[in-house]
Amino acid sequence: MEKLREIVREGRRVGEEDPRRIVHSFKVGVALVLVSSFYYYQPFGPFTDYFGINAMWAVMTVVVVFEFSVGATLSKGLNRGVATLVGGGLALGAHQLASLSGRTIEPILLATFVFVTGNLA
């Protein structure tokens, strides 16, 4: 019970310091509930049937991208989208190069590409 009182006191202190932080936390919570409903709620079954367990990554994207201001959220979301497209293109190119090299060299090239990309990142 004492821990709960401490949490309430801390929340009240943060709310008095900067009320926008409390509003932001509610926005993040609502966004997480809405996105999670696509994953857990049965009427959206075709959504999870099509995407499978990967649908949970939509929830993770909300956690990673959601920022304090709208501009920061849009900027971070656009950067994430562009980076995903570039990464996908690089992966397709690496796969194409590796598949042209033959069965023996293919795993070696793929491991090398993963190592180099990981180090550059």
From TrEMBL:
Transmembrane annotation, as ranges: 21-41, 53-74
Keyword Signal: no
Domain of life: Eukaryota
Membrane topology category: Multi-pass membrane protein
Compartments, record wording: Membrane
InterPro entries, per the entry: ALMT
UniProt entry keywords in alphabetical sequence: Ion channel, Ion transport, Membrane, Transmembrane, Transmembrane helix, Transport
Keyword Ion transport listed: yes
Main location: membrane
Pfam families recorded: ALMT (PF11744)
Similarity section: Belongs to the aromatic acid exporter (TC 2.A.85) family.
Protein name: Aluminum-activated malate transporter
